[in-house]
Amino acid sequence: MTKKSKTNTKQRIMDTAVDLFNKDGVQSITSRHIAKEMGISYGNLDYHFKNKEVLLLAIYKQMRAEMSDSYKAADPATGSFDQIHRLLLHLESFQYKFRFFNLDVLEISRSYPKINRLLKNTLRIRKQQMSDLFKRAIEDGYFIKSTEAHIEQLLLSIRIIITFWLSQEELLSNSKSKKNSSGMSDNIWKLLFPYMTEKGQLLFQELVDGSRG
């Protein structure tokens, strides 16, 4: 088996696992389910990923890498406020692509120590990156100066929304209130809107109109 075919097989296993995890949850899916879905032997899958923790760790590392670019410092020409807007939109689409992770995050972190450690490290990094991004937006005049004193609480509130957004959606899946609810990024912006300067509010409206158009 060539190196390229090994890589392709590993990625196919990861992609199939994500599809099954999204559909039925992490705890309901075994390696044998994944192998059967792919039409390969269990031994072939075990050759690439010896257990579920190794597989989930590989998927999480892929998730982590995929989000990294959106958190990195923006090109000065792009602007801090626009980066926040794009980051929130990416986070929302990311939620649905890997919906299983936030729905099962507590079970995953309790069951798989290596993922738990990497997740905690990632959350620390993301918190600092988002804090730096908000401070840039304050310096750029998009948020009022006093926002800096509330950054810790705002970041906590944003993290809670991100972590539990899909859970509350599932709970409201048969509820009329879901039909009237806005998306995750919209709700985060509602949280941030009172802290915006007039300059920030005007740019926010432009960005929202542009993304809807």
Automatic annotation (TrEMBL):
DNA-binding region: 30-49
Keywords noted in UniProt: DNA-binding
Cross-referenced Pfam families: TetR, TetR_N
Residues in HTH tetR-type domain copies: 7-67
PROSITE patterns for this protein: HTH_TETR_2
Leader sequence segment: none
Domain of life: Bacteria
Listed PANTHER family: ACREF/ENVCD OPERON REPRESSOR-RELATED, TRANSCRIPTIONAL REGULATORY PROTEIN
Protein name, per record: TetR/AcrR family transcriptional regulator
Species assigned in the record: Cyclobacterium plantarum
